[in-house]
Amino acid sequence: MLAKSVPDIPPGMLYEPKWDGFRSIVFRDGDDVEIGSRNERPMTRYFPELVAGFRRELPPRCVLDGEIVVVRGPGLDFEALQQRIHPAKSRVTLLAEQTPASFIAFDVLAMGDDDLREQPFQVRRAALESALAEAGPPVFVTPATDDEAVARTWFEQFEGAGLDGVVAKPPGLRYRADQRVMFKIKHARTADCVVAGFRWHKSGPVVGSLLLGLYEEGGDLNHVGVAASFPMTRRRALLDELAPYRMDGFDGHPWGAWAGSIVGNPAAMAGPGSGAPGSGAPGSGAPDPAVAGRLPGGLSRWNRDKDLSWQPLRPELVCEVAYDHMEGSRFRHTAQFRRWRPDREPRSCTYAQLDRPVSFELAQVLSAR
User: Fold this and answer.
1) Fold match flag (2-187 vs 189-255+296-353)
2) Contacts of 252 (CB under 8 A, 6+ apart)
3) CB-based contacts of 128: which residues, under 8 Å, 6+ apart?
4) Domain 2-187, CATH class in plain words
5) Over 50: is that where the pLDDT of 290 sits?
6) Whole-structure pTM value
7) Rounded to the nearest 5 degrees, what angle is found at the Cα of 115, between the Cα atoms of 110 and 118?
8) Regarding beta strands 221-228 and 335-340, do their DSSP bridges make them parallel or antiparallel, or are they unpaired?
9) pLDDT by residue (tens digit) across 304-338?
């Protein structure tokens, strides 16, 4: 069951924090445990510590809906969570020890022989709280409230722990798979970014996405994400608008030093622990794979056949984009193009313009239950 974005918190709902992790459905039948992603991809092999925890903490037969997260320090670490998706069993085992995951349950679809999907959400919520009343880590029940004022406080404060908004659910809502019948309210902000490259669209020679950068205090231009979701007519127009800034190669480009090592050395993108030359080992001269996956041209963790090659642009264009929140030094989700900013000097596009959420420890979020 999915949620659609709305600009403000609607009244008369049950409210929960919006967790930033991997949405998952967990099936347990005795010792048999399966974890599936929202796209029905099998996730079980990547989280052996959760499988053990589910056998220990969940009712013997149940189906739960929730979010897999990794907690590091006072908040969530989505980048560490992404690293958990790895093909090598030895690496999976190591990461399960180094960055163990937790499961935040927020709905129950079945309990024992009972299919609960046709029950109102408020009934399912009560069943969830009862079933997990004695559960311990790594299983948690998300906080919930019917007080709109409390939800607004959560919206402002919990972002400091790495959460990215509030979800509102009608109390009488039946479980409707693949339908956007819940509501999500996310933080909306804007930033002025340097456009330093673009990717081609999969349909042909038009712009697919813009590569965005922000300057650090030391003067380096960091890749912070992409802007996409353009209508096809806009993609064609962008190609003409970007033409005067296109470069023939990476020489002189602020991302040229590592771009060449990625483009010219596919082995540089091998997974951690692969032993392949250029796998990010000290002295290899190649980007660390954990970092390279976040750079333009790095392999997609979810689809290694996806073409992420890009075309360099002189870093002279500035655009305003909308974003929800940051994950480390990057935009957590795809940014939305708003307008060109010819009045802005590229070097003025720094991290200093970004909002910093109030610091808030994750333990306080979970204690809100």
Assistant:
1) no
2) none
3) 64, 105, 106, 107, 108, 141
4) alpha beta
5) no
6) 0.71
7) 115
8) parallel
9) 455 567 899 999 999 999 888 787 788 888 999 99
Give Cα 156 distance to the centre of its chain: 19
Dist. CA 292–CA 86, nearest whole Å = 15
d(CA 9, CA 168): 7
d(CA 55, CA 29) in angstroms, rounded, equals 9
pLDDT of residue 337: 94
**Cα 294 from chain centre:** 12
Radius of gyration of the chain (CA): 22
Q: Report the percent of the chain where pLDDT is more than 70.
A: 84
**At the topology level of CATH, where does 189-255+296-353 sit?**
OB fold (Dihydrolipoamide Acetyltransferase, E2P) (2.40.50)
pLDDT at 148: 97
In degrees and rounded to multiples of 5, residue 60 shows phi and psi of: -60, -35
Q: How far apart are CA 237 and CA 207, in angstroms?
A: 9
Would you say 349 and 213 are in contact if contact means Cβ atoms under 8 Å apart? yes
**Can 18 be counted among the known catalytic residues?**
yes
DSSP string of 29-76, one letter each residue:
ETTEEEEEETT--B-GGG-HHHHHHHHHHS-SEEEEEEEEEEEETTEE
Q: Where are the domains of the chain?
A: 2-187, 189-255+296-353
| Residue from 4, 18, 169, 306 carrying the catalytic annotation | 18
Across 223-262, b (16+ Cβ under 10 Å) vs e yields bbbbbbebeeeebeebeeebeebebeebeebbbeebbebb
Q: How far apart are the first and last CA of the chain?
A: 22
pLDDT for the residue numbered 369 = 57
Reference 204, options 232, 241, 244, 240; nearest CA is 232
Which of 4-13, 104-113, 264-273 has the lowest average pLDDT? 264-273
Task: Spell out the residues 6+ positions from residue 243 whose beta carbon is closer than 8 angstroms to its own.
Answer: none
Phi, psi of 82 (to 5 degrees): -60, -35
- Type of residue numbered 301: R
